[in-house]
Amino acid sequence: MNRLSFRGLRRTGLAILGAAMASATLGTSASAAAPSDTAPAAAAGAGTAASRGCAVVYFDLGETLVHTDEDSRIGYLPGAAAYLRTLRERHIKVGLITNVPSSWGATDAERAATLKKEIDGSWKGSVPFAWEDFGDRILTPRTEAERKPAPVLWERARTRAHGCRLVYEAETSAETDVAVSLGYLAYQTGLPSRPAYLPVRVIKRLAHGSR
Fold first, then answer.
1. How far apart are CA 117 and CA 122, in angstroms?
2. At 97, which CATH number?
3. Which domain does 134 fall in, by range?
4. pTM for the structure as a whole
């Protein structure tokens, strides 16, 4: 995808600002709602992982972690780089749940590779985007029908959580509402008079079972 089409994708798929924050905590009902072919695997790892205390924080990408200027240059939103660094220092895993064209590849890895090229090719600033933090936790639509706000990507992330608590942060209430319905702790970013991102101390408490 060229720079102009990336700007179009941002506008239509990533940059719709919501009006309110939605939140919920992960409960046993979230595992119960997993697809039948993956629920046993998710449930099997739940006790061990939860007892260790873990959480995985998934993000939307455009206008949540990065911003696109009018000239198509892409860079971190204020506070995003520092927030990711703090999560890394606290050993909290992060991932992306983001819409890209399904034609970008046959697998998440292939689509993620194309996404990296698009972002890095227009990146501004001396600090590069922290792709290494996300590992293989970059989930993208396999078909156009899977594009958010369809619940498929959040469901896929949930089945891979191995019992860890799940957080989702995005700038749109349409997306945080879906995440909440699937058992995530959801936090809407970009709202005035509140932290830019969910405080790390809240995530640590969630990971260890505090409410």
1. 9
2. 3.40.50.1000
3. 3-207
4. 0.77
Among candidate residues 106, 126, 105, the one with its CA nearest the CA of residue 117: 105
Alpha helical stretches, state H, the chain: 3-9, 28-32, 39-52, 80-89, 108-121, 131-134, 152-159, 173-181, 200-207
The gap from C-alpha 175 to its chain's centroid, in whole angstroms, comes to: 10
Chain position carrying tokens 């700007």: 7
Dihedral sign, CA of 93, 98, 103, 104?
negative
How many C-beta neighbours within 10 Å does residue 101 have?
17
| Contact assessment for residue 67 and residue 31, using Cβ atoms and an 8 Å cutoff | no
Residues 43-71 have pLDDT tens digits of 323 344 444 579 999 999 999 999 987 77
How many domains does the structure of the chain reveal? 1
Tens digit of each residue's pLDDT (9 = 90 or more) over 176-209: 999 999 999 999 999 999 999 999 999 999 998 8
